[in-house]
Amino acid sequence: MIVLDTAKSLQDHVRARKAEGKTIVLVPTMGALHEGHIALVKAGLARNAHVIVSIFVNPTQFGPSEDLSSYPRTFEADRTKVTAAGGHAIYSPAADQIYPPGFCTTIRLEGPASVGLEDKFRPTHFQGVATVVAKLFAQSRADFATFGEKDYQQLQVVTRLSRDLDLGTQIIPVPTLRESDGLALSSRNVYLSKADRAIAPTLHIALQATAEAIRAGRSVASAVLEGSSAIKAAGFALDYLEARHASSLDPVASLSDGPIRLLVAAKIGKTRLIDNIAV
What we know:
This protein is of the alpha/beta class. Helix content is 38%, strand content 19%. The protein folds into two domains: 2-174, Rossmann fold; 192-271, Pantoate-beta-alanine ligase, C-terminal domain (Pantoate--beta-alanine Ligase, Chain: A,domain 2, 2-Layer Sandwich). The strands form two sheets. Strands 1-4-3-2-5-6 form a six-stranded parallel sheet, sandwiched between helices. Strand 8 (260-268) and strand 9 form a beta hairpin.
């Protein structure tokens, strides 16, 4: 496994692979890899590409009260998983390779980054995501990048970012990977207590029931209200359960408003979980 730890070593590596005619796929992660991340690696390999996994715990996407210091850092285990999956290289930069001394540039976001979902509860999050993604795309000159649908708003934000700024990296969406009981795989699942883990699949169950109700002709508002009540009754503190247009993430009132995505965020115990499904 090739481990690259500077922007220059990454650029030299990519330049050499492109000279060999290789297509470059970047898999941006913050480490603590699970099978959902491995699915992103495999999506890149399916394109017969040279797959580089970036591992960087990005400080700018954490809010003041969020878990930057306690975010799991498991580099050796991550390297083993990337190797077993068939990935070709890891880019694991120090913070000054992404944010060098004097770094002062930010990206102003609107569109899907400003629709009252995660941005309402984590106001600086997507600015941090957009900044690090733009840096990684610029440093790697990747042809493609894989992102999971589990972080659906993030997927729409980075897709628009790459398109609007002509960054030259095409986004490949990868379906959410789930446990057998429906819980979406997430690095934060390790924080769930045994009792909370038993309750956690309620989010996916409620999403499925809400989607089925909408497809059966129930009004969007009524179906979402019933789903919200089920999530709260299970013991979650609900941040939102929303029906949004699948591309713009604008609110929708009925199936005729376009393809619908249901998105949810809720906290059980000390752990905040997000999930989403198509209607």
